[in-house]
Amino acid sequence: MESNAGSNVIAFLHLCIVILFVNQVQATNSSGTFGGCPLSSLPHNPQHVYSYAGRPIESTKMDQIVPLDDIAMIRCRHVGLFKQNGGDTFNCTSEGWSGNVTCTDTNHVTNYTSESLPPAIVWHVAGGGVSVVAAGGQLVLLPGAIVHLDCLFPRLAGNPAWSWTPEYRRYPTGWSLSSSERDLHYRLSVYYARQHDSGTFTCTAPSALTNSITILVKELRCAELVVARSVPESALPAVVFGRRQTRGDDRVIVAGSGTTMGSSRFFTCFDGYVLNGPQQMTCLPSGLWSAAVPPACEVVRCPALPPLPPLVRLRHLSLTAGGVALFACPLSYALTAAPSIVCLTNGTWSAPVPHCKEVVCPAPESPEHGSVSTAALRRVGDVAVYSCDEAFVLQGPRIVTCTNAGTWSKPKPNCVISCQSPGNPRNGRVSPRLLRYRLEAQLLVSCSPGYRPAGPDRLKCLRTGKWSAPLPPCVPVIAG
Ligand SMILES: *[C@@H]1O[C@H](CO)[C@@H](O)[C@H](O)[C@H]1NC(C)=O
Ligand SMILES: *[C@@H]1O[C@H](CO)[C@@H](O)[C@H](O)[C@H]1NC(C)=O
Ligand SMILES: *[C@@H]1O[C@H](CO)[C@@H](O)[C@H](O)[C@H]1NC(C)=O
Ligand SMILES: *[C@@H]1O[C@H](CO)[C@@H](O)[C@H](O)[C@H]1NC(C)=O
Ligand SMILES: *[C@@H]1O[C@H](CO)[C@@H](O)[C@H](O)[C@H]1NC(C)=O
């Protein structure tokens, strides 16, 4: 069973407008014909908590008009810390709202020292029992609860006294025994509350100033709460990283159980869905759940995309949580960021829409002992042409092209040292016959018939730019 035990203040509402106490309110209709009393015209006071038709009025519509002779309930926000006078209702009369309820200060505003203010009363319910404050300020207990009412009064200034209206038993009273409380807490305890314990309990200070708490003991249940399209949280596997990753499931996850007064339900949705309605519902002393309509889970939607930047094309779009928007650019243009953005489970896009930027290749580097020339901008399809200094030859491509990826089609060539053609020997020739020979290139000397090379007939181009041997002359073959 959910419990509010230990909490002295159960605040269902937060009225934010601060106006001083108003005892009598008149809301007449200036046009003459009376049509009821609007809830919004109840006297505003931060200490007042209003209920209408069994529920705190903030969970109903504030613009609601209450019919003639109907009543709104009122209690002080901090029951016991304020003294409630003048009953617990405002009546809708033909003159407007009528009621004399006030919430006046107790000695809690002076840290319990003042003897000219009534004593404050705080309570706590022991051992997991349930207490809820009713719409009129009564403390409602389930049968069996143990409740301690503490009248706060400085012990040095004398002894207060408890009195009560229930007649069938006496209640133990006395200074609290705990060391932190025994100088201030004058206690009355109700053990194992029964219906007969319902009544008003009054603390009278030596100054004769009083404060009271009214207790109502009743077996109270709300109707079974039916939430459409829901799943009990206990039926789900444990959550690993704090979020439920079940896309496509719009069921409401319901935590909590029980239908006795004070029982609560807590509502959440699966990832990608958002709760429409209350996050929590509690069984009120009125026997009603705190909200009239349970919530539903609705799929999270991201806002429509802003107008696309120039040239950007949309290739795919899904506005629901987890969906993506996929973009593309025309040929020779590239996106400035990732091609897709995701609709996050909080309803925002993971990133802004990217732009299209013309693809350009980086300026190519000149090889050592060489140079390169390109167009100024180096767009897709543009070429870079390499050349080498005198006495060097290209090793690698002479021409490279700027590709769609913004890179050159081939790696940059090197300029390597070369050997000059040694020319042909008389009565012979070299092959291959070139102007310049690259490093490691070989050259074969062959002589005309009747002649032979006087030396090695294979020459190799060395790193020094020189041939491995001088060109051999072709000499006549002497017939043996
Ligand atoms: C006041 O009277 C007018 C005209 O009879 C009616 O339309 C309107 O609802 C009334 N307003 C309230 C607050 O009762
Ligand atoms: C409010 O109206 C009800 C019913 O008409 C009546 O019993 C009750 O005494 C009235 N309360 C006040 C504070 O006028
Ligand atoms: C408020 O108090 C006045 C004077 O004590 C009394 O005449 C009037 O009936 C009370 N009004 C209500 C609504 O109780
Ligand atoms: C209230 O009184 C207590 C006990 O005497 C003291 O510890 C605390 O500081 C006081 N607080 C204020 C705000 O005066
Ligand atoms: C949505 O979630 C993302 C990632 O978790 C976060 O960076 C962003 O700030 C959130 N936006 C809003 C409006 O909550």
Automatic annotation (TrEMBL):
<dbReference type="InterPro" id="IPR007110">
    <property type="entry name" value="Ig-like_dom"/>
</dbReference>
<feature type="disulfide bond">
    <location>
        <begin position="329"/>
        <end position="356"/>
    </location>
</feature>
<dbReference type="InterPro" id="IPR035976">
    <property type="entry name" value="Sushi/SCR/CCP_sf"/>
</dbReference>
<feature type="disulfide bond">
    <location>
        <begin position="388"/>
        <end position="415"/>
    </location>
</feature>
<protein>
    <submittedName>
        <fullName>Locomotion-related protein Hikaru genki</fullName>
    </submittedName>
</protein>
<dbReference type="InterPro" id="IPR050350">
    <property type="entry name" value="Compl-Cell_Adhes-Reg"/>
</dbReference>
<keyword id="KW-0768">Sushi</keyword>
<dbReference type="InterPro" id="IPR036179">
    <property type="entry name" value="Ig-like_dom_sf"/>
</dbReference>
<feature type="signal peptide">
    <location>
        <begin position="1"/>
        <end position="27"/>
    </location>
</feature>
<keyword id="KW-1015">Disulfide bond</keyword>
<feature type="disulfide bond">
    <location>
        <begin position="447"/>
        <end position="474"/>
    </location>
</feature>
<feature type="domain" description="Sushi">
    <location>
        <begin position="359"/>
        <end position="417"/>
    </location>
</feature>
<dbReference type="InterPro" id="IPR000436">
    <property type="entry name" value="Sushi_SCR_CCP_dom"/>
</dbReference>
<feature type="domain" description="Sushi">
    <location>
        <begin position="220"/>
        <end position="299"/>
    </location>
</feature>
<feature type="domain" description="Sushi">
    <location>
        <begin position="300"/>
        <end position="358"/>
    </location>
</feature>
<keyword id="KW-0325">Glycoprotein</keyword>
<dbReference type="InterPro" id="IPR013783">
    <property type="entry name" value="Ig-like_fold"/>
</dbReference>
<feature type="domain" description="Ig-like">
    <location>
        <begin position="119"/>
        <end position="214"/>
    </location>
</feature>
<feature type="domain" description="Sushi">
    <location>
        <begin position="418"/>
        <end position="476"/>
    </location>
</feature>
<dbReference type="Pfam" id="PF00084">
    <property type="entry name" value="Sushi"/>
</dbReference>
<keyword id="KW-0677">Repeat</keyword>
<keyword id="KW-0732">Signal</keyword>
